[in-house]
Amino acid sequence: MVTAPASDPRPTPEQLTAHVQFDVGMTSRAGVLLAGPNSEDIEGTDVLAARSDPTAVDSVSTVDVADLSSGVTTVVLAGKERLLGRPPQHYGALAKADAPLPDLPVR
Q: Minimal CB count within 10 Å: which of 15, 77, 81, 104?
């Protein structure tokens, strides 16, 4: 799933929680990767909400800089990880990222 930058006004905590619950619900069918164009700010976004949620953090992968060319590459690599059945990870350059990108090569 690709998300948008935080709107103005920002989504309410209840809206972000609903988005994250939807993302977690999708994990029963497939590996979920949540990517957002958040290179300027991650506050008020689905990506940070997922990284902060105790259930989502262990079931949904995230990429926080999908609006940058490096982020697009990271989305592809993280998506391949999920297709290979690897556990969720959080990539990018902002709050609560595990690493800038997956370990290479992704096989």
A: 104
State pLDDT tens for residues 25-50: 999 888 899 998 877 788 888 999 99
Residue with tokens 């619900």: 25
**Please, what is the Cα angle at 74 between 70 and 77, to 5 degrees?**
140
Which residue intervals of 9-88 are DSSP H helices?
A: 13-26, 46-52, 69-83
Say if residues 38 and 23 touch (Cβ distance below 8 Å). Answer: no
pLDDT, tens digit, for every residue of 82-101? 999 999 999 999 889 999 99
Q: What CA–CA distance (Å, rounded) separates 54 from 67?
A: 26
